[in-house]
Design a protein that fits this description.
GO cellular component, one term: cell outer membrane
InterPro entries: SusD-like_N, SusD_RagB_dom, TPR-like_helical_dom_sf
Strand content: 5-15%
Radius of gyration: 23 Å
Protein name: SusD-like starch-binding protein associating with outer membrane
Keywords: Cell outer membrane, Membrane, Signal
CATH class of one domain: Mainly Alpha
Organism: Chitinophaga niastensis
Length: 524
């Protein structure tokens, strides 16, 4: 479909209301009576849902702060006092979520504006007359319903991973003032609702894209399946097996595996390879957007006034990558540079057997990788609003949320859980070869059979960091895989659900039914 340029002001114009604790406003009922009359109305409302999702994930760098900044200063160094960085420690880097200035991470209200928008779409869609659809009405309804269900599922999954139990709101509410506050819904019920919605979405959408330019930015059936696989893995590892030392529930792991294998087997995704290696030029375009690597991404392109001038990946850039910017707000930590992409790799069992690191990601992700202060350039597609003066720069990259490499790495993880350690190692070796990464000495010279469960999971987590850094998910990967990748998330804190965010105290106003997450009780 053609991208709709009108961004709907969803909270004021379309929302028919919500519970008091969600802090939303009632709809303008007169306006609503004139809306929801045609397929075009529904598409505008759906455009509003996409715009709201983009805002949910990117406001104050929510996606990258929670998914990447939490890794600590070994990966991201705060070099300046940019907005939202209030001290040199930046509390989120050290897991101090109770500190000031973190309300955007602790308050779920804005996410519910998106949920309520999708609820409205799903409830109004059956009432739209068939003759207002441009083509087949049934197919048109399915396309809109499938996308709305996907967006609602994605938002609820993000809430689930961030807060645990959350209020489950599935319908519009025409009388918000009369309603009483809602309690949190048990996470087991929330995750099952997400899976049910994704089943319904999969039945609405096709694997093929209607328009190739929609690739990645409009969810298809494969995007639904990929998200469903992530949900099954979270339930298997975190919800059903909550302790740090517990192994996953294999029933859910098997369900995730079947979905991933179906997507891989479709042949719709993945970059072309020569002798098992991806082309570095094609690989670099993955992070601009709409590539065969993309399964779902946020459309944030300058041409549609959706580019960003302050998204976190841009805060790493400086001269000569970013004109007239001589000091960046963020730098790369020592673990990212020296552990993930060292200049020299040991390649043999004898001390001194070394070669240069030829991983194509090393130079694609870092400018001046061999220098003393390399610049992180994974996202560096810059457009200047004033090109003659090279001023007012905007980042013109889409923001990846799910991509094919994630599925390949999850496949290895699943093989480990299934006890197929040799298969997991073989897949890891092939993945590294595809990036031209020399085999690290920690794995390369150990025969496949003796590799331990934990050893392989550590290697896979490290490879996820190499591949997926600054894509907003490494923190959640660490929680799911139960590694010690995040220094402050100790097993003791993990077992008290200390990986979850505390609820913003503002949410408790006029809502006696809410309770704080147990790790944070008495701390905020």
């Amino acid at each position: 479909m053609k991208r709709i340029l009108i961004i709907i002001m969803i909270a004021a114009a379309f929302l028919s209301g919500c519970k008091k604790m969600l802090n939303q406003v009632p709809k303008d009922t007169t306006y609503a009576e004139k809306f929801w009359k045609s397929e075009n109305d529904m598409k505008k409302a759906l455009a509003g849902a996409y715009a709201a999702l983009r805002s949910n994930m990117l406001e104050q760098d929510y996606l990258h702060n929670l998914g990447d900044m939490t890794l600590g200063s070994q990966y991201i160094v705060i070099t300046g006092s940019a907005p939202y960085f209030y001290n040199s420690d930046w509390n989120i880097q050290i897991g101090k979520f109770e500190m000031n200035y973190l309300d955007v991470f602790r308050n779920w209200s804005r996410f519910y504006s998106t949920i309520l928008q999708t609820n409205l779409i799903l409830e109004k869609l059956p009432l739209v007359p068939d003759n207002t659809f441009q083509d087949d009405a049934e197919k048109g309804r399915k396309q809109i319903a499938g996308q709305a269900l996907f967006i609602r599922s994605y938002v609820y999954f993000q809430l689930l991973r961030t807060f645990g139990d959350v209020p489950l709101v599935l319908k519009e509410d025409p009388e918000p003032i009369a309603n009483k506050p809602l309690a949190r819904t048990d996470k087991n019920l929330v995750v099952q609702q997400i899976l049910n919605d994704l089943d319904a979405a999969a039945n609405c959408l096709d694997m093929e894209y209607q328009v190739e330019t929609d690739r990645g930015t409009v969810p298809n059936k494969a995007a639904v399946m990929a998200l469903q696989a992530q949900v099954y893995m979270w339930r298997a590892c975190v919800i059903k097996r909550p302790s740090f030392d517990a192994t996953p529930d294999m029933g859910d792991v098997s369900k995730a595996s079947a979905l991933i294998e179906q997507i891989i087997g479709s042949g719709l995704y993945g970059l072309p390879m020569t002798n098992g290696m991806v082309d570095s030029i094609r690989y670099s375009k993955v992070f601009v957007g709409n590539s065969r690597e993309s399964i779902f991404e946020l459309y944030t392109r300058y041409a549609y006034n959706e580019g960003s001038n302050n998204l976190m990946p841009m805060k790493f850039l400086r001269v000569p990558v970013l004109a007239k910017t001589y000091a960046s707000s963020l730098g790369l930590g020592t673990s990212y540079v020296n552990t993930l992409f060292p200049r020299i790799i040991q390649t043999g069992p004898n001390k001194g057997d070394t070669i240069p690191d030829t991983d194509i990601r090393r130079n694609l992700f870092m400018y001046d990788a061999d220098g003393t202060s390399p610049i992180f350039i994974k996202y560096n597609n810059i457009i200047y609003n004033n090109p003659n003066q090279l001023t007012e720069p905007y980042l013109d990259n889409n923001v990846s949320l799910i991509r094919y490499a994630d599925l390949l790495l999850s496949r290895m993880e699943i093989a480990v859980y299934n006890g197929q350690l040799g298969a997991a190692y073989s897949q890891l070796r092939d993945f590294r070869h595809s990036r031209n990464r020399p085999q690290m000495d920690s794995v390369a010279f150990v025969s496949e059979a003796p590799l331990s469960y934990n050893r392989l999971l550590d290697e896979i987590m490290t490879e996820r960091a190499c591949e997926l850094f600054m894509e907003g998910q490494l923190y959640f990967d660490n929680v799911r895989m139960k590694r010690s990748f995040v220094p402050w998330l100790t097993p003791g804190r993990y077992n008290q659900e200390g990986y979850l965010m505390p609820l913003d105290p503002a949410l408790f106003n006029n809502n006696r039914l809410l309770v704080q997450n147990k790790y944070w009780a008495g701390k905020i």
